[in-house]
Amino acid sequence: MAKVTKDLNPAVKKMSLGQLQSARGVACLGCKGTCSGFEPHSWRKICKSCKCSQEDHCLTSDLEDDRKIGRLLMDSKYSTLTARVKGGDGIRIYKRNRMIMTNPIATGKDPTFDTITYEWAPPGVTQKLVWVSYQEVSRCQWKLKQAAHERAGCGLQGSVGENPKHIDPGLIRGLQYMELIPKEKQPVTGTEGAYYRRRQLMHQLPIYDQDPSRCRGLLENELKLMEEFVKQYKSEALGVGEVALPGQGGLPKEEGKQQEKPEGAETIAPTTNGSLSDPSKEVEYVCELCKGVAPPDSPVVYSDRAGYSKQWHPTCFVCAKCSEPLVDLIYFWKDGAPWCGRHYCESLRPRCSGCDEIIFSEDYQRVEDLAWHRKHFVCEGCEQLLSGRAYIVTKGQLLCPTCSKSKRS
């Protein structure tokens, strides 16, 4: 059995806005048992006990993550990926897709089930209950491969029967996409891949980059600057990738609707040598990052900000700055490439190396490529204010001479 569900939780109505749940004592994934548990710093985004980041403690819950992404996508052209919460005073929550694959295993009288739950699935996967076994999925994949090769002008021999009518091709695309992701990064419940996704949600899309109420001590003029900053990036840069077969990006998903060529897509795709291809031959679609050919039966990622003449292999849809996969396919378009939210924001405004928040004041401290709010220009060891005093910056750490010396000894 496979199903895709909406992860909507009515408990969101009872949660206060702009506040994280208490996370004291949460174990650190980085320290591997040596940390006594999360102890929040008063203003740094770290644990006082082990000095690791909040991401290493995976402090957020599914509900908090869905609320954060819902807030990010609301008031943008991707608001259709969110749902309004009843009685929530305009709060919207992310309609996160999940896929659950269940295969019955005959073991005597009582059957058991091999179940895999993906905590996230690409947008566009039909959100309806689908019953399917692994064998049926394989048969559907073969039929879809046949159709893809026929469209590309080359044959694929073989017969495996009819595609079961109750299996949605979009679901198969989602499964194919997951198979192309490295196993250690697949968001399967209870695995390192699920924790990796949650850490990336915190790191790439910090809540304090979009919600002023989660920033500390913004002045009135800074608040207005931040609100305009967020409004502008939602309008001009924010995007959500689309998973489709090569040449099918941007096509309507409704059943029975005529599929027209999306704006920006090329009628004749260029071959790898740059010349126009012969329509009688197989069309080649090239990955925008690695320049490798995308097989016609293998899903790729499209960005509507880039136009549908460009596509990426799933493993190549990464941030232009840090080269990390873009979590949940959420990107920010800049300089002809997708960026993660963190690096997009700090490419436009400085980020405080102390509190990790974007700086909206014109009065701040800068040392080489690093920046601090004036009040956060303090030693990371003893936390004394270093404005007008001697300091040492080593590997991104700001230290007073005494703490620097003790670290070396």
UniProtKB/TrEMBL annotation:
Any single Gene Ontology cellular-component annotation: cytoplasm
Domain PET: from-to ranges: 99-130, 145-250
Biased composition (Basic and acidic residues): 252-264
Listed SUPFAM superfamilies: Glucocorticoid receptor-like (DNA-binding domain)
Main location: cytoplasm
Boundaries of every LIM zinc-binding domain copy: 285-350, 351-409
Region (Disordered): 245-279
Feature: compositional bias, Polar residues: 269-278
Stored InterPro entries: PET_domain, PET_testin, Pk/Esn/Tes, Znf_LIM
Flavoprotein in keyword set: no
PROSITE patterns: LIM_DOMAIN_1 (PS00478), LIM_DOMAIN_2 (PS50023), PET (PS51303)
Cell compartment(s), UniProt: Cytoplasm; Nucleus
Role description: Transcriptional cofactor that restricts GATA6 function by inhibiting DNA-binding, resulting in repression of GATA6 transcriptional activation of downstream target genes. Represses GATA6-mediated trans activation of lung- and cardiac tissue-specific promoters. Inhibits DNA-binding by GATA4 and GATA1 to the cTNC promoter. Plays a critical role in the development of cardiac hypertrophy via activation of calcineurin/nuclear factor of activated T-cells signaling pathway.
Record's protein name: LIM and cysteine-rich domains protein 1
Protein source organism: Callithrix jacchus
Higher taxonomy: Eukaryota, Metazoa, Chordata, Craniata, Vertebrata
